[in-house]
Amino acid sequence: MDWGMAEEAGFAVEWLEARNLAGTKAMADYLSIASLTSDFKYDSCPLKLGCMVSDLNDWNHANKAEIFQPLLLLPFVAALADKQPILLSWDNSQVCVLKDVVYTSSTNTHTGFDKERLFKIRISTEALNEKPLEFKRRVNKDAETHVKTLTQLAHKTYAPATEASRLAGAGAGLNDND
């Protein structure tokens, strides 16, 4: 991912986790399949679609799209739910946002995580009469495996330090005085 898309990915995970949705799992599953497949369909990327929704300030372009990990689209759609609720649906899952509150009719908020399947999403301005999800401050213990997956993927982007890179100014160089 380029830097801007990576920032948006981080935003999406943080937003979902804060609202008790499995953002870490969704991102780990999504990036795992995207990083292993050479013929990956970038047009099915929930982050790319989310950025388009944000840039155009219009969720209608995303309605009926087929994407991986639909939950990752929710933070971008939620930014548009200031005055009316927006309902994101796929298969048997429904997640509704209004301002900064999330409602779900699903007993399992971890739905939609089939790694290799595209989900046809539906977006509408409907409300759910459900109890809102509570906010949380930390990633749950059950997400540790997914955090490790994300860390392993991040390590693929690191460049090893060399003598030449240090002499060229990377790191502290030869004069490490801190």
Task: Describe the 3D structure.
This protein has six helices and six strands, in the order αααβαβββββαα. The protein has 178 residues and is of the alpha+beta class. It has one domain. The chain has a four-stranded antiparallel sheet. The longest helix is centred in the first third of the chain and has 16 residues, at 3-18.
Write the layout of secondary structure elements.
Layout: H1 3-18, H2 23-36, H3 46-56, E1 66-67, H4 74-78, E2 86-90, E3 93-98, E4 101-104, E5 119-120, E6 122-124, H5 144-155, H6 163-167
Antiparallel strand pairs: 1-5, 2-3, 2-6, 3-4
Taking all residues together, what is the mean pLDDT? Answer: 78
Strand order across the biggest sheet?
A: 4-3-2-6
Structural Rg = 19 Å
Span of the ends, CA to CA: 33 Å
Total beta strand runs: 6
Give the domain tally: 1
Q: What share of the residues does DSSP label as strand, in percent?
A: 5-15%
Q: Could you give the order of the helices and strands?
A: HHHEHEEEEEHH
Number of helices: 6
Q: How does the overall form come out from the CA principal axes?
A: elongated
Percent helix, as a range, is 25-40%
Largest beta-sheet details? 4 strands, antiparallel
Q: Low-confidence parts lasting 5 or more residues at pLDDT below 50?
A: none
Main structural class: alpha+beta
Give a concise summary.
With 178 residues, this protein is of the alpha+beta class.
Key terms:
alpha+beta; 178 residues; single chain
